[in-house]
């Protein structure tokens, strides 16, 4: 699979100019004319992206609007040019940098699995049925980042809010590339009873009872895997643990319905704890990556960015 990813990166890096050779009845020799090659862009965004993404990681960033980015039935807004470099700096510091902070193992992980293409779009993608896409990964080759025109480093929710925050989205989508290449932790699939498209009809509390950190995680084991990783990494440690891991004391409750509800929520938290431990072991065994240490480092970086309204220089 690594070979496939490398091949995709090479494909994205080179631009081939093709020309058509036609047969003619004219027997006269025609002087050879070298075909024109595309000129390299000197736009500041493209110069920055080449240095920081294409040269460093073999990743092309698509920021100019192309109708092929979305389906005819979808609507979206292009990213404003002024946000391209700031968003890329965020990607470097709070996505790539979080993994690379874990030494050789983290750097190897990024070099192997970081997608060969990123796509920047200014808004969410709105669909005909009224729903909206928050971001998506395509076959391990491309991750699309949305809502980038709302760029605001002081807005922690814009970055980390589950179900829409740009960091929550990129760490979710990146986790899809992980399981697409390496599968899921052994035993992960059988813990939660997934509801398929029924996830649209359940609320947060009902999802938690199933052992999912968000209703979307109740769709299937793959979304569950990605949602747990994303929540674990981008939410503050105390908030994640209080909401999804710490058992609530049901002993003082007297109403039978309240007792049952409390016990069902605790059962769901226990399922999340089991799956999280499987994920942490999986990353350690497969990649020699300590997800707990990486979470702690990422939280320090998020705190710095929010408090100082800037990405620090490398």
The number of distinct β-strands equals 6
* CATH class value: Alpha Beta
**Dominant shape:** globular
Q: Number of helix segments?
A: 11
The description of the largest β-sheet is: 4 strands, mixed
Which class of secondary structure composition applies to the elements? alpha/beta
> Which strand order does the major sheet show?
1-2-6-5
Radius of gyration, in angstroms, nearest whole number: 23 Å
Mean pLDDT: 88
Tally the structural domains: 1
Structure explained in plain terms:
It is a single chain. The protein is α/β, with parallel strands linked by helices. It has one domain: 3-Layer(aba) Sandwich (Collagenase (Catalytic Domain)). It contains 11 helices and 6 strands. The chain has helices at residues 2-13, 44-57, 84-100, 104-113, 156-160, 166-182, 204-210, 221-234, 237-244, 256-287, 291-308; strands spanning 60-62, 117-120, 125-126, 132-133, 135-138, 142-145. The strands form 2 sheets. Strands 1-2-6-5 form a 4-stranded mixed β-sheet, sandwiched between helices. The chain has a two-stranded antiparallel ribbon with strand order 3-4. Helix 2 runs parallel beside helix 3 (84-100), helix 6 (166-182) crosses helix 8 (221-234) and helix 7 packs across helix 10. The model is unreliable at 1-37 (pLDDT under 50).
